Amino acid sequence: MSYDIDLLAVTNNKVDYLRFKEHVKKHNVSPITMEIFNVLGEYWDNYPTRAAVDLREFRTFFFIVKGKKIKDPALYEIAFDNLEKALTEPTPIIKDLLAKLIETDYATQIYDVCLKIGVGHEGDLLSIEEMLNQYKKEIGASVEKDDVFVKPSLDYLSSVVASGGLSWRLKELNISLGPLRKGDFVIVAARPETGKTTFTASEASHMLTQLQPDEHVIWINNEEASNKVMMRVIQAAHQVTSSELLGDPATFETKFKAIGGERFLILDDDSGIKTVNKINMLFKEFKPGLIIFDQLDKVYGFSYEAREDLRIGKLYEWARDVAKEYCPVIAISQVDGTGEGEKWIQMNQLRGSKTDKIGEADAIITIGKSNEPGMDLQRFIHVPKNKLFGGKDTLEAHRHGCFEVDIEPAKARYISKWRT
């Protein structure tokens, strides 16, 4: 009977009851416990605002519902007395029982996925890994204090937060943001045909030279043709036109490889790797030092969300987690129609799930372009959000700066106009 009472104690709140009710079978518990458990479901239906059981109220409710059907009320009174004691004095087995129910719940979910795939229905075997990760988080493995809490040591904090990092090619961004470090998630947003790919190629080709020998730039591309993007990256690396590049391809290929070009990985259009789970596998296979999503909104995943804005929000939350686990992440995003012809674009002009995008990003860079005559090669960089730590070149007055720069599209470069 002890197991039965502990089971009732575990499901004394609505969330756990609804989650685990399908895993409680009549052959595993006594008839009395099963009756109480079933009436508990009726209790939640009748008191929808209750988050947890009011035991005295539920006790009265149970005897009203069952009435004369109860043959031996004394046995039920004993069960309720034992339940009250279990709730006020929880036993160690309650924690183990909850862990077992959680394990059963995830095992059922995994089984369902395997069954759908086995009979030829929709399903993604890689989604099982995400379920296992969630399971591990929920049951909470035994951990040491230093593994889960930040050390109050300035030497430690400076070594983790303020040291190293990837500097920008543009002086203006070093002044405003400082280096990119592991855990940093940055959004770059602009209108179409503004130069997002040129900007990213210019910066990523510079950051490539700062990576460790075993690290890669991984560019998840779903916007332009991948071969075209690689051309832009090589142009940016050497600041040459496409004519110059194609005029002596062997020389520039050799030079690009000399600065680590073989570790600059751009996802091929035809790879079929478009989902969150498959992309995660890439990061595990090829150690990233910098990750670029162009564009993150177009990655497949979290389709269970009822609305597109909620799905997008989950994508950005996932990308932030990727940055924490691996390395800095830059996500390219679009600006909505209100940014057309605007120089200084604000973060509320990002297209899509604006609140979630803004909330997940550590920093947001917007690139504006004026439609006025004679300004085709000028770009206007604004940093409306900046939670980065900064670096030796950072100036506090420019943390949310507005900077006018030039673009050299023929050579895939942005050109600094900063003058000290």
How would you portray this structure in words?
It is a single chain. The chain is α/β, with parallel strands linked by helices. It contains 17 helices and nine strands. The chain has helices spanning 2-10, 14-20, 31-46, 55-66, 73-88, 92-118, 127-139, 145-148, 154-161, 171-176, 196-208, 226-238, 242-247, 249-258, 276-285, 308-325, 354-360, and strands at 185-190, 216-221, 264-266, 288-294, 329-334, 363-368, 378-386, 402-408, 413-415. Strands 3-2-4-5-1-6-7-8-9 form a nine-stranded mixed sheet, sandwiched between helices. A hairpin with a 4-residue loop joins β8 (402-408) and β9. The longest helix is centred in the first third of the chain and has 27 residues, at 92-118. The radius of gyration is 28 Å and the shape is elongated. It starts with a helix and ends in a 5-residue tail after the last strand.
Q: What spatial form do the alpha-carbon principal axes imply?
A: elongated
Beta-strand residue percentage? 5-15%
- Strand tally is 9
One letter per element, helices H and strands E, the order comes to HHHHHHHHHHEHEHHHEHEHEHEEEE
Short characterization:
Strands 3-2-4-5-1-6-7-8-9 form a nine-stranded mixed β-sheet, sandwiched between helices. It contains 17 helices and nine strands. The chain has 420 residues and is of the alpha/beta class.
